[in-house]
Amino acid sequence: MRKSGRTPLMRAKKLEKALGISEIYLKLEGANPSGHKYDRISEVLVKDAIANGFKKILVDGSECYIQSVQLFAKLNELEIKVPLFKQEKWKISRIDKSILFDMRDKKDTITRSNLREIAEKNNMYLMCEWNLNNIISHLVLEDMTRECLERMDFKADTITIQLGLGYTLSSVYSGLIKSWVHEELCKLPELICGSNPSWKDSMDEYVRKMQIGGIKSKEKDTAKTNLYMEDDYTGIVATVEKIIMDTRAQMIEIEEIDLKNAANMLRDVEGVMVSRKESYAMAAFIKKANQGKLSNGKHLIILNDARSEIEVCEIKSFNDKNKEELLEMTRDWLSTYNDSVGETVDAIEKAMKEGFLLIAKRNGEEQGICIVVNMGFERFIPTYHLAYIGVKPGNKGRGVASELIGRAIELTDGNLSLHVDLDNKRAKNLYRKMGFNHVYDRMIYNHPNE
Predict the structure, then answer these.
(1) What Cα–Cα distance (Å) separates residue 366 from each residue in 9, 186, 312, 370, 401?
(2) Where would I find the N-acetyltransferase domain in this sequence (predicted)?
């Protein structure tokens, strides 16, 4: 089972009210294991490395990208090396020294242009952040696009993203075209892209700083992996310009103050945390809304590292959290209920085997638990059933239960039922708010001998 993806798609109702726009959805990619959209790509690239017989990976790029690759390499017991060049003191202080591959020399003869040759010589799988505009990345991000569209019933008026190196924009567009061709989408959403006003100069500076100008990809590798990227990486700007033109994306220039205000607004209004450097999409949407250039409809904003203040973690093994702890949390945090210990244990074991065990955390401390079991049906009744949900005392009205239920809906694609006491009005109101309807009352036979 993939560990990345299926991140929360959050309906931002408070933000809708603040901006006067109906139906705003936030894709919180910070809920990925290492906290970034990169995880979707890193996980599959590591899988590709294994499929092609590699035992070692050579990775280069930003700290965030390296950490993402390192996570999935470790999970798959692959060795990882990070090249260390001159003027890269940040790597010495932030990257584990045991994985650094020192390429500094007095004559400065080794540069990033040698990485492909070095990787081949040492039988390493090469993963570079600046070369993510490839087939695997596109397929993975097309999958992310479909993930969003399915939750939005294939109705979206705008999709707002951050420009970056252009591969997210081209991937989202490809995903939209596929859904449109298959007649799942009636019309293509407008693509909005937030960027630095001087993004062209910034990209040229990136090429110069990373010393990747003039790096050539071998013809066989280009045919295998690259969709848009020029052989010579000095062509990045031209490539991105072509992507913008092909996708007909509307570019919104974002200043530093816009990034600050967007990050603050998300935090203060919706309790969503996003780094300032990854706030371009949010800032672009706010700018359009404030200009009165957005109509009511369905609007999707993809945020590369955004996460809720409340983090929902999926427990996939009793090694992550033992059965006794889960049982104690369930029985301590639920409102008074009559299920026996044996019944609760049964639900926990079944959820671990073929359902979902979710724990909500705030600042690393556990605040709530949700247990979802697979009922084994496809059509007769909903496949999944929310067996138990409980929050730690002191969390009333702080959104913990909402986050847990929302995540359960995400993971089950809404194919989910639950039971609620007839006189529990507060719980009923929450469930209705989350999209549940009262369908029937449940009656259980009370055996006369019991």
Answers:
(1) 22, 43, 9, 12, 12
(2) 313-450
Residue 285 lies in a domain: yes
Q: Are 314 and 357 in contact (CB under 8 A)?
A: yes
Q: How many whole angstroms separate alpha carbon 354 and alpha carbon 348?
A: 10
Residues in the chain: 450
Structure tokens at 417: 């039922």
Structural tokens at position 306: 């955004």
Six-digit token string for 6? 């299926």
User: Quick one: 164 and 284 in the same domain?
Assistant: yes
Residues 196 and 335 in one domain: no
Strands 24-28 and 307-308: unpaired
Question: Looking at the predicted structure, is the pLDDT value of residue 356 above 70?
Answer: yes
Which band of pLDDT confidence, cut at 50, 70 and 90, is reported for residue 261? Answer: very high
Number of other CB atoms surrounding residue 291 within 10 Å = 9
C-beta of residue 297 within 8 angstroms of C-beta of residue 37 = no
Q: Is residue 1 part of a domain?
A: no
Q: pTM of this prediction? A: 0.76
Q: Quickly tell me which residue has 């650094």 as its tokens.
A: 100
Cross-sheet strand order for the sheet of 365-374: 310-315, 356-362, 365-374, 384-391, 416-418
Supply the CATH number for residue 326's domain.
3.40.630.30
- Gyration radius (Cα) of the chain, Å: 24
